[in-house]
């Protein structure tokens, strides 16, 4: 299993203006990658590259995985990056997601796709697709690597006490964050496609039952002491979080509470899935 208690997230340094619409009257639409046409894919790829070339301020180090912060944090993080793409890079398109149940072992590789899994003979540097030889600046200048292992968390998932725990163990299908030491999974564009998918799974679950739409539970500390403790606190141990808890941002993007992101069709997020 790949357990990483703290993550360094590459965070794009952006001067945000006021992000929050008083109302959500015209929600943006998030769609599966393969349903976007070539122009829509190209617009997203271009905005990702634009933002990667912008000055950035890295190092948000916080315990996000296997805690109650997992879903709310990523929902707000992806949204904040999308806002930066809009404001700094003129992005006006649809932010896509990748439904990896369709094709996890074989993601799209054309020049309008995000590229393959890296060439093992070239240290897994990505050689094809729109992100071939994509250059990253954090932590120092380097080309992007993708090393894919099919179902790396299958054993972990099988032993997870709950679906929520299983979900919080989900990672982008790259070794970016699965080799010893902190890696920078948001360096890969797949990180965002993956986390929008995770957000959709949460959204689908929220919509199953009206009780779920506002449900939230989870702690702020990983409960890895022993299996009993983990079974008791699968989504994080005390101190417990609640809907008034602030989402971690290190002042790199505007702060909101967990309660502010439970409803993605309301004013803070304002998007729907199609
Ligand atoms: C992913 O695609 C499969 C196959 O089309 C579909 O059954 C499933 O609902 C999709 N998952 C999400 C979260 O949209
Ligand atoms: C909705 O969730 C509540 C609380 O978990 C449960 O009591 C209820 O039976 C659920 N309703 C449906 C229709 O599943
Ligand atoms: C498991 O962890 C809990 C919380 O830290 C502790 O109270 C308990 O004694 C531990 N049990 C074992 C068997 O170590
Ligand atoms: C949320 O948690 C904070 C910090 O533990 C606590 O002060 C506050 O009373 C809690 N709010 C609710 C509504 O439970
Ligand atoms: C979510 O927000 C939208 C827009 O404000 C609102 O119409 C909807 O009722 C909200 N859903 C819940 C569960 O509060």
UniProtKB/TrEMBL annotation:
Q: Does the keyword Oxidoreductase apply?
A: no
Report whether Coiled coil shows up as a keyword of the record.
no
InterPro entries xrefs: Di-copper_centre_dom_sf, Tyrosinase/Hemocyanin, Tyrosinase_Cu-bd
Identify the stretch annotated as signal peptide in this record: 1-22
Q: Name one GO molecular function term.
A: metal ion binding
Taxonomically, which superkingdom?
A: Eukaryota
Q: Tyrosinase copper-binding domain location, by residue?
A: 65-82
Known SUPFAM superfamilies for this protein? Di-copper centre-containing domain (SSF48056)
Pfam families annotated for this entry?
Tyrosinase
Alphabetically list the UniProt keywords: Copper, Metal-binding, Signal
Spell out the Gene3D superfamilies in the cross-references: Di-copper center containing domain from catechol oxidase (1.10.1280.10)
Q: Which PANTHER family match?
A: TYROSINASE FAMILY MEMBER, TYROSINASE-LIKE PROTEIN TYR-1-RELATED
The name of this protein is: Di-copper centre-containing protein
- Origin organism is Lentinula aciculospora
């Amino acid at each position: 299993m790949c357990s990483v208690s703290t993550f360094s997230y590459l965070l794009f340094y952006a001067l945000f203006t006021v992000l929050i619409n008083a109302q959500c009257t015209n929600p943006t639409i998030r769609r599966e990658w393969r349903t976007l046409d070539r122009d829509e894919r190209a617009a997203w790829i271009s905005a990702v590259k634009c933002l990667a070339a912008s000055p950035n301020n890295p190092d948000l180090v916080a315990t996000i995985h296997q805690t109650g912060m997992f879903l709310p944090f990523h929902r707000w993080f992806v949204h904040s990056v999308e806002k930066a793409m809009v404001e700094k890079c003129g992005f006006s398109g649809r932010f896509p997601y990748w439904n990896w149940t369709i094709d996890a072992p074989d993601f799209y590789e054309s020049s309008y796709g995000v590229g393959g899994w890296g060439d093992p003979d070239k240290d897994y540097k990505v050689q094809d697709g729109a992100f071939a030889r994509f250059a990253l600046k954090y932590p120092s200048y380097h080309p992007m690597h993708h090393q894919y292992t099919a179902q790396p968390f299958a054993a972990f998932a099988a032993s997870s006490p709950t679906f929520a725990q299983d979900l919080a163990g989900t990672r982008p299908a790259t070794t970016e964050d699965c080799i010893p030491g902190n890696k920078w999974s948001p360096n890969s564009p797949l990180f965002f496609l993956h986390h929008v998918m995770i957000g959709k799974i949460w959204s689908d679950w929220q919509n199953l039952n009206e009780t779920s739409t506002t449900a939230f539970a989870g702690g702020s500390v990983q409960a890895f002491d022993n299996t009993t403790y983990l079974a008791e606190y699968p989504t994080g141990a005390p101190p417990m979080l609640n809907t008034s808890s602030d989402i971690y941002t290190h002042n790199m993007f505007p702060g909101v509470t967990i309660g502010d992101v439970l409803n993605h069709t309301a004013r803070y997020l304002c998007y729907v899935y199609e």
